[in-house]
Design a protein that fits this description.
disordered C terminus, 3% helix, mainly beta
C-alpha cells in the first residue's frame, strides 16, 4: 500500500517557563518548568481496512561531550528518564489520543532502551479525518549524580579535547527526533 501524499504530519512544540496546568484528551496535566510539550497531528490517511493501524515512532536522546560519562535509564509505563551525570531528560507519554474529536486510548511501547536513547512507538487506531498525539519532555538537574546510583553505566570516551575544554561543556545537546516520524501501516489481523 502506498503512502497517501495528502496526509500531513504537524508537530507543534510549546515551551513552559513555569509550572502550568493544561488539559489534553480530558486529562489534566501539569507541565514542569523548562518542559517542552509536543503535539503531533496527523491528517486524513487512506486506510485499506478499519482494522489497520498506524505506528508512530518517536525518538529522543541526551548527549554529553564529556570524556568520562555515567548514565542511567529508567523506564515506566507512561514515562521514561535518561540521566547523564546530574542532568536528566524526562519523557511522559500520554496514553490517550484524540481521533476524529473523540478521546481514545493508545498503547505506547518502548522500542529501544540503549544507553542514551528513548525510542517509543504508539499504535494508532484507524481514523477518518485526523488524530492528535501528545507527549512532553523536561530537562532537569538531579541532586544525585548517575555515577552514584545503582544500575548506572559508566564509560570513558576517547577525546581530543583538553581538560579545560571538557570542563566548559556541561551538556552538549539535547536532540529530539520527534520530527523524524516514521509512519507505517501495521496490520492487525
Amino acid at each position: 500500500m502506498a503512502f497517501v501524499s495528502n496526509t500531513n504530519i504537524t508537530a507543534t512544540l510549546e515551551w513552559f517557563n513555569q509550572s502550568t496546568s493544561i488539559q489534553f484528551a480530558n486529562q489534566n496535566l501539569t507541565m514542569n518548568p523548562s518542559g517542552i510539550k509536543y503535539t503531533i497531528e496527523i491528517t486524513k490517511y487512506q486506510f485499506s481496512s478499519s482494522l489497520n493501524q498506524l505506528q508512530l515512532v518517536m525518538a529522543a536522546s541526551l548527549e554529553s561531550n564529556s570524556n568520562d560519562i555515567c548514565s542511567l535509564n529508567q523506564f515506566g509505563n507512561t514515562s521514561t528518564q535518561i540521566q547523564i551525570e546530574n542532568h536528566s531528560l524526562y519523557g511522559r507519554f500520554i496514553k490517550r489520543t484524540i481521533a476524529d474529536q473523540t478521546v481514545k486510548s493508545i498503547n505506547n511501547v518502548l522500542l529501544d532502551s540503549s544507553l542514551n536513547v528513548i525510542d517509543d512507538s504508539s499504535s494508532l487506531q484507524s481514523y477518518i479525518d485526523s488524530i492528535i498525539v501528545d507527549l512532553d519532555f523536561s530537562v532537569l538537574i538531579d541532586s544525585k549524580s548517575a555515577s552514584g546510583q545503582d544500575n548506572s553505566v559508566c564509560t570513558k570516551k576517547k577525546s581530543g579535547l583538553t581538560t579545560s575544554q571538557l570542563a566548559g561543556i556541561i551538556i552538549g545537546s539535547v536532540c529530539f527526533a520527534a520530527v523524524i516520524v516514521i509512519v507505517t501501516v501495521h496490520f492487525m489481523v
